[in-house]
Design a protein that fits this description.
Helices cover 28% and strands 27% of the residues. It contains four helices and nine strands, in the order αββββαββαβαββ.
Amino acid sequence: MSNNGQNNYNVSYSVITWLERALKTHKNISSVSRYDDIVFEVTRTDQDDKLTIFCADEYVGGVTFVQHVLSEYPNCNIISIGGGWNGYTSEAKEFCLAAKIGLFVSDELMGALYKDKYWNHVQKDHKGKPIFYYRNT
C-alpha cells in the first residue's frame, strides 16, 4: 500500500494497519487500496460496488468532525471512528444516517460491510436491543 506516512488527523500507524488487515481479510471484500494514508477504497463482492472508508481514531466523533471529513472527502461512504473505546454523538449518527453515510466503530463496520444499506447497520445485544456507541463531547 502507498502513503505509509503522516496524515492530518493524527491517526496512528497501528490504527491504520489494523483497519487495513481487517478489510483485506473481510469475507465480503475483494479488493482494498489506500490513499492519503487514511482513506480506503474497497470493492464488495456480494454487492459488486465500491465504497470509500475514512479511517479515524476519534474518542468522540461529533457533527463538526463528520462535516470536516466530508468537506475533504465528499465521496466518503463510511467513517470508521476507531475501536470500541471510541464513539460518536447521537447528533453525528443522525446526521450520517440522513446522508446515508456509515458512522461506525470497528466492530460495527465489519458487520455493515455485508449489508446493502450499510449506513443503516446496527449491532444488537443478546436481547435484540440496538447497541450504539454514543459518547458526549
